Amino acid sequence: MNYLDTSALIKRFVVEKGSPLVRTLVIRRGPVATAKVAYAEVYAGLTRKLREGHLSDNAYAMACRQFETDWQAYVRVDLLDEVLLFARDLIRRHPLRGFDAIHLASALSLQRALGEEITFAAADERLLQAAAGEHLRPLNVETAKAP
Predict the structure, then answer these.
(1) What is the chain's pLDDT, residue by residue, as a tens digit (147 residues)?
(2) Could you tell me the residue ranges of all domains in the chain?
(3) Residue ranges of the PIN domain (predicted)?
(4) Which of 23, 30, 49, 125 has the most C-beta neighbours closer than 10 Å?
(5) Reported CATH class of domain 2-140
């Protein structure tokens, strides 16, 4: 199972460093999982890119449509109290921002529930180091080669 945090997931909808690998993960290497908070985070990122002139109106509309279509196929991890408590503990162990801790806690909760190894894909080196420290298989989508 591949878990994508928002820094990786958004690369599916805009062309950035790492986009080819993310497309490969989503299209050929599924299934893909993410936390439900990624829904708001992706929209915030896409809308910021529109506001800052990095996306045209048409590109923004296409990215949003593609995201809505893809969203239905993702394994979405609910933000349960258990995940929040786990995020709190991760913040105490690693230098993480709040949503990064939620993504990491979500991936770890999913790994525990499925009993299988999770590849944690992100573009944030600090988050990837924490993922490795928590025994997830880290994948930096900006530096890894697309298979």
Answers:
(1) 999 999 999 999 999 999 999 999 998 877 899 999 999 999 999 999 999 999 999 999 999 999 999 999 999 999 999 999 999 999 999 999 999 999 999 999 999 999 999 999 999 999 999 999 999 999 999 999 765
(2) 2-140
(3) 3-127
(4) 49
(5) alpha beta
